[in-house]
Amino acid sequence: MKIAFVSGATSGIGLAFAKELSALGYSLILHGRSADKLTSIARILPSVRLTLVADLANDNDIKAMLEELEKQKLVIDIAINNAGFGLYGKHLALKVSDINAMIAVNISALTTLTHYFAEHMTQHGRGHILNVASTGAYQPQAYMAAYCATKAYVASFSEAIALEVRADNVTVTCLSPGRTDTNFFVFDGADTSKNNKGTFSAKHRISANKVAKLGLKALFKGKIREIPLFENKFYVFLNRILPRSVVLKIYENAMKSI
């Protein structure tokens, strides 16, 4: 049985990936921060082979997780680096410790995991890696300045690494979903869709299940970049052709409406 690893698998897009891969017959290695949530998921997904509890903002946790994977001596066919989080608000109003934790998870941990899986996959001559970025990777956004910068790194890094490992029959796909219906849009305990207004309201979102399906479709095709839905592709295209000052103003106004 082929094996798939998913980070951040206890909710949202990560959980959707786990369910899709289970339905496709993959044996699962799931990562999360909550042992209780991972145990609950293992009860409903019998294909779960191993659960790994780790805070990816902590280097020691990452080291311990990779050591456990080494002990298992498993050949992992698919690695989904999904774990990540965002912070909303004026940059100076956010805690520096929270910003640094986000950078650690979104950038440092993803880079470490990509290196680990790519190294092993190239040794075995096959494998697929999918790194989750965001449409926020393609333009700066006021009030989510550091978050979008981390996702810009993920997109650039993933697309470059894809070129380096493709000769070894290893693919790297950067998945950049837009507004997705997950807990990402809960700020200070309140969901931004309560009044169903604004660019991030529920009516504008795509389901996590659909994101996972489209992501896996792109992965199996060996695509380097996947931006789900025409609407999101169109926004990214506009960002490239409109003057930078116009793009920045558009997103400043949009982010204020959250």
TrEMBL record:
Superkingdom assignment: Bacteria
Keywords: Oxidoreductase
Pfam (any one): adh_short
UniProt GO cellular component terms: membrane
Xref: Gene3D superfamilies: NAD(P)-binding Rossmann-like Domain (3.40.50.720)
InterPro entries: NAD(P)-bd_dom_sf, Sc_DH/Rdtase_CS, SDR_fam
Family label: Belongs to the short-chain dehydrogenases/reductases (SDR) family.
Identification of the protein by name: Short-chain dehydrogenase
